[in-house]
Structure formats: structure tokens, C-alpha cells
């Protein structure tokens, strides 16, 4: 089995796993959840109980408590990619007389991304407290399906405004709760949703710029070396024209770190690009990830006491005001005072 076939199999496997992780969380009894539950049951029969407890505590601390581990990993990955880009790609491209602005573009995007990252991670996402709960209740209307009036958070002991949710990781209720992002170590809510969208867009653009410059460099190397027009001897000793597999293998043997970095950055760009499209869709339709997942769950929301059991509740987005107003709301969330003036 040649190098290109193995690489494509690996790429398809990673993309398939990523797609499952992105598509399945919104479904209560998804195939992924059932498979993980069955796998854990089988492993519990083999793994010692003490090791299970240690693993459970480690996973709980990693994913259910605020931790800087993913932030450190985030910075380390960016440092590794830009270290390789600066050490080899930038130097080689400068010798090949690439335009300076093209070579500096990834650094400019990185600076913008780091700025959005710091602002998003340190911003107040819209914490609901006893002092502001009465005002936040007036910002959004209750739809009666996903959000119902009069519910009190048992942990925070405050009335839950519409579109809010208690974050078990941060231990607070967040207004217009979207999700808790481990990469910025903060909740994404009404007051930093716009920053998170800019962070996501700039991160995707940064990865895409690094991938584009690196791919242009490797293509230039192939054109200058005339490898594309040469031949090679196969296993039977017969002369064959070069194909894509040979070119990829030639580049991998010549520039192993650059090719590995390019594969990682391309995959990262595809994953981030898909998530960017999803986030833009939510922003343009004035939805949050929390609301989207709730509306997709099988069986819908529980019936209200006054609702006949034979009439299932239908989730309808009552918060959408049109594309431009929805997008404006992401970057400039409404307040209780603005709501009062409109009414």
C-alpha cells in the first residue's frame, strides 16, 4: 500500500470522527452516545476499579471544571505551527522571492486572532446575578417551549431569563448562553458572542493563510526541480511517469516537517471552516448552540400543564429579526433599557 493511500485513509478517518462529533451531540440517543456507553460497559469489566475512578476524576476535572490546559494546548499548537513556518517556510519563500506581504499575512492574522482570543477569554459572557436578573428577564420574550417564565435556577437562586442557562463548569447562569468553550476557558454568551465569532473567523483565516503559503512554496519547489516531468523505476524495474503519490512521497522525504505541518493545517482549516459556517448560520438566524441542540432533540420539550398530550409542542425561533438585525445583535446585544424604550 503506497504512501498516498495511507495518507488518504488517515485523512478520511479523522474527518469521519470529526463529523460524528459535530453531528451527534444534539441528539439524545445518538449512535455515537450508544456506542460510547456500550464501549464503557465493556471496558469496565477489564479495567481495574481504581484506575476507572482516577480516569473518571481526570476527565471530570478536564471537561467539567475550568482549566487552563486547553488554553496551554491552544498556544502550544500555534507556537509549533508558526515556529515551523518561520524557521523553514518563511526562509525558503524569501529566497524564492515571494512577495513580502504574502509572507507576513499569517502573522497579521495571528495578531488579530490573539487579540480576539484574549478579549473573549477575559470578557464577562453575561453572568446573571441577583442584582441584574430582574432587568435581564425583560430583554427577551419567553417562547413557552425552550424557555418558560417563572423558572428559578436551583444553584444560583435567581429567576432564569429567556435564552439563559446555568453553566456547570463556571457555576453561574449566563444570559443568551451559547456554550462553554474549553479553548478560551470561558462561557460564550450575550456579551462575548461577537468576540468569539471574530476569534473563530480569524483562526480559520490564519490556518488557511499558512496552508496557502506553504502549498505555494511546495508547488514552486516541484516546478523548479522538474520532478513533475521526470520518471521513476517501479518495483518491477520499469520506468513509469510520476504520479501524485510519487510527488507527495518525494515532498515528504525532502521536507518532512513542512508536509506534516501542511497536512495538519489543511485538516484544521477544513474543520474550523465547517464550524465557522455553522456559527455564521446561528448568528444570521439569531440562534445559539444551546437552542439549536434543544430544538433537535427527539421528542421535543416536555408538555406544559395546559397543553393537551396529543398536541406536541413545536419549537419555533421567535428571536429572529432578519439577517442584518440578527448579526447586529450578536455584536451589540440588547439591554433591558433598550427593550423598555422600544415597548
TrEMBL record:
<dbReference type="InterPro" id="IPR039859">
    <property type="entry name" value="PFA4/ZDH16/20/ERF2-like"/>
</dbReference>
<dbReference type="GO" id="GO:0005789">
    <property type="term" value="C:endoplasmic reticulum membrane"/>
</dbReference>
<dbReference type="GO" id="GO:0019706">
    <property type="term" value="F:protein-cysteine S-palmitoyltransferase activity"/>
</dbReference>
<dbReference type="GO" id="GO:0000139">
    <property type="term" value="C:Golgi membrane"/>
</dbReference>
<feature type="transmembrane region" description="Helical">
    <location>
        <begin position="6"/>
        <end position="24"/>
    </location>
</feature>
<dbReference type="GO" id="GO:0006612">
    <property type="term" value="P:protein targeting to membrane"/>
</dbReference>
<dbReference type="Pfam" id="PF01529">
    <property type="entry name" value="DHHC"/>
</dbReference>
<feature type="transmembrane region" description="Helical">
    <location>
        <begin position="258"/>
        <end position="284"/>
    </location>
</feature>
<keyword id="KW-0472">Membrane</keyword>
<feature type="transmembrane region" description="Helical">
    <location>
        <begin position="99"/>
        <end position="120"/>
    </location>
</feature>
<feature type="transmembrane region" description="Helical">
    <location>
        <begin position="196"/>
        <end position="223"/>
    </location>
</feature>
<comment type="similarity">
    <text>Belongs to the DHHC palmitoyltransferase family.</text>
</comment>
<keyword id="KW-0564">Palmitate</keyword>
<keyword id="KW-0012">Acyltransferase</keyword>
<dbReference type="GO" id="GO:0005886">
    <property type="term" value="C:plasma membrane"/>
</dbReference>
<keyword id="KW-1003">Cell membrane</keyword>
<feature type="domain" description="Palmitoyltransferase DHHC">
    <location>
        <begin position="150"/>
        <end position="295"/>
    </location>
</feature>
<keyword id="KW-0333">Golgi apparatus</keyword>
<feature type="transmembrane region" description="Helical">
    <location>
        <begin position="67"/>
        <end position="87"/>
    </location>
</feature>
<keyword id="KW-0808">Transferase</keyword>
<keyword id="KW-0812">Transmembrane</keyword>
<dbReference type="InterPro" id="IPR001594">
    <property type="entry name" value="Palmitoyltrfase_DHHC"/>
</dbReference>
<keyword id="KW-1133">Transmembrane helix</keyword>
<keyword id="KW-0256">Endoplasmic reticulum</keyword>
<protein>
    <recommendedName>
        <fullName>Palmitoyltransferase</fullName>
        <ecNumber>2.3.1.225</ecNumber>
    </recommendedName>
</protein>
<keyword id="KW-0449">Lipoprotein</keyword>
